[in-house]
Each structure stands twice: as structure tokens, then as C-alpha cells.
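User: I need a structural model of DOT1 domain-containing protein from Polarella glacialis for a docking pre-check later this week. Nothing fancy, just the predicted C-alpha cells so I can convert them on my end. Input:
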Amino acid sequence: MGDAGGAAELGHAEEALCLAAVERLFERAGLGEVSTHEQLAKQGAAEAVAGGALAASLVYGEILTPLHLFRTLRLGPGDVFCDLGSGRGQVVLAAAMLGDVPDDRSELSGPPRRSVGVELLRPRHDAAAAALEVAPQEVQDRCDFRCEDALAADLREATKVYVCNAAFPRHLNDAFSRALAPAKAPNLKAVATCAALPEESLPVACLELAEVASIAATWATEGAPLFLYKRCGLGSFSALGRSSRPMPASVRYEADRQLQSASSSRSAAESGRGMAPEDERSLLRSAGIAWALKASSSS
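Assistant: Understood. Predicted C-alpha cells for DOT1 domain-containing protein:
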């Protein structure tokens, strides 16, 4: 019990150091917390929706435990890490700064060879670019931010991918899964998502579920599921070290519910029965995330 508690405290301290290092870049760039959170949740969204983007795909949120994400992905110096829907670039910058923040458990051996963020909305991309501009030169050399549709991104070099898809409807998750197929991402080894991918899309993408972990996020500070998928035929794939984040019962319940929903072969919408239950739940998650972010920004 004491060892578990100590490991958890150490993990929280490491995550806090990591986030603080990234936040200092935004402060140096003149971007305060309100500018990077509350305003970025709104800026550019109306224009993107008018241009055909799905509103649920633009809901803004961030994970609060990037180091745990990197350990789950087994991120290392030989990797090209890609965050699809990277927002203001917090996770991408954190990956590029690995080594600058002490990892007392010596599980993360260093930053990836490249750390890439793909973001559709210009204000979010501009915030990431501004933070990168004031980062140390070695971080700048490892980072690349692109303002484009993540579904059309060049993923030929990507080995590890992260998608913050907590509010995505089923058909969009299906599209992201298929965008990671071997023909489009030939070097991909693993992808981590905040919502389960539809089971019927996994054979096309040549992906299989390897692990379910727990992360903290702005929409679920006590814990949310993180789904790790690996390329089929890759062999065993497990996170680095022992998790410092035990999975709460509520997170396990949500993960099991999502996996059960993802296992249905076709959505109700595809069968002509209107909106699929998973899409309805996606809308509720979108509303819940938006409410949580609004509440946190006003407190």
C-alpha cells in the first residue's frame, strides 16, 4: 500500500514538472492560461463547421498525464510521434522535451526522433507554433506543427500516434482508424486513443487492442480510459514499467462499456435506424466535456 502510494505520488510529481515545463513556453510566448484554454475552445470552430468540419471533432480538451501516455506507447528515441488533433501542441511539446524533465523511474529513455502535431484550427495551430518559437533549439529541431486535416495527414514516417477522440462519433472514429491502415501508415507500431475504435474498422487498419489504461484529462481529472492499439503481427506490446495510475472502477466501467459498444458490427445509422447509440453518447460526451471545461475556466 505504501509502495503504491509512493509510486503514485512520484508519478503525479513527474507529470506536474512536465506540464509546468510546457506551460513556461506558452508564458514566454505571451499566451496566458485563458488564451490557451477558454478562447482556444471557441476560436475558429464556427468557421471550421461552416467549412464542413464535424462539431464534435472540435471539442477542446487536454490530457493531464502526458508521461503516462508516453510510457503506454513505449515512446523512445527511434520513434516518430504524431498527435492527430494536437490543439495548442501541449502533448507534442512534452514529447519533444523528454529528457529535460527528470524521469526518476528511468523508463523513458529520451525524446522521439520527431514529434509532430496536426491541427485543423488555425488559432490552436498558431498557439503551438508560438510556443515552439521560444523553445530551446533542440526542441525546435525535433518538432513540427502542421495546420491541416488530420485525416489527410502524411503518416508514412509515424511510428506512434495519439488521438484525443473522446467526443468523436462512431463514424469519425472509423475514419481515423482507417487512416492508420498500413498503406497510409506503413511504419506504425501503436496508437493510443481516448475512446475505443469501432471493432469492424480494426481489420482494415490492421490494428488490435493491446491494453486499456487510465489517464487524467481536463474533462475527467479523476481518470478516463486510454485505449492502446498495436499493429497486427507486431508481437507482445506492453507499457513501460508499472503504471503509477491504478484504474478507478468508474474508468474500468466506462472502458468496458465503450468496448462493448465498439464490438457491434454496424451502427444503427448505417442500418437506417437513425442515430447510433454510440453517436448519441458521443454528443453527450461532447456536452459533458464542454461543460467541464467551461466550469474549470470560470472557477
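Before docking, keep this in mind: The first strand starts at residue 80 and ends at 84.
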